[in-house]
Amino acid sequence: KNQVEQSPQSLIILEGKNCTLQCNYTVSPFSNLRWYKQDTGRGPVSLTIMTFSENTKSNGRYTATLDADTKQSSLHITASQLSDSASYICVVTGTGGFKTIFGAGTRLFVKA
Amino acid sequence: DAGVIQSPRHEVTEMGQEVTLRCKPISGHDYLFWYRQTMMRGLELLIYFNNNVPIDDSGMPEDRFSAKMPNASFSTLKIQPSEPRDSAVYFCASSWTGYNEQFFGPGTRLTVL
């Protein structure tokens, strides 16, 4: 069964600290993995997209890594800011029809 | 570009009524996606179109749901008749290809009483 599991479910950190969010998936065959940021009341915004051959991709203070062998991805946020408070959703797409599986998301709270 | 435009932003209706949600994708994007988001189930892909043609509607929950894309700049998602369990935020997204970044609209928050 194709699944995407994210951890932790929620996370509270202090402003300026780093954090890492995890995503494990069983989608196969695999096409790409995306990380989205969703602010409360807004639509998701793409942070990174990685294909099978990519190990890491950065977008400012956001760095995503992918291990296609272990089917794991992580999103590292450096020097967190209050505006990083949001839900972070891992999305995995399989080949042949763009079958897309969404993770439940990690809710990040950054406190001053 | 104004991004993906959805209307209405909020919709409150009574059970049994017909609901129509509207979406205008980003100009030049060949793919359009409809999603539903609830606290219980998270984000779910309902249907997607390529060049105005429905490709995969396996995510559409029931026959009460239907979607159309009469041209490259407009799509609708219709629920008839609506039920309280349809209450959710419905997002429309578009992209250049099926594998590229998807740009999401602001969503329509639907409440069925």
Order of helices and strands of chain B: EEEEEEEEEEE
Amount of beta strand of chain A: over 45%
Number of strands of chain B: 11
Mean pLDDT of chain A: 92
Proportion of residues in β-strands of chain B: over 45%
Weakly predicted, low-confidence segments of chain B: none
Write down the secondary-structure element order of chain A.
EEEEEEEEEEE
**Broad shape of chain B:** globular
Through-space gap between termini of chain B: 36 Å
Counting copies of identical and different chains, the oligomeric state is heterodimer
Q: Which protein chains make the most extensive interface, counting residues with beta carbons within 8 Å of the other chain's beta carbons?
A: A-B, 21 and 20 residues
Q: Over the alpha carbons, how many angstroms does the gyration radius of chain B reach?
A: 13 Å
Helix percentage of chain A: under 10%
Radius of gyration of chain A, taken over Cα atoms and rounded to an integer in Å: 13 Å
Mean pLDDT of chain B: 94
Number of beta strands of chain A: 11
Salient structural properties:
heterodimer; A: mainly beta; six-stranded mixed β-sheet; five-stranded antiparallel β-sheet; 11 strands; 0% helix; 59% strand; globular; B: 113 residues
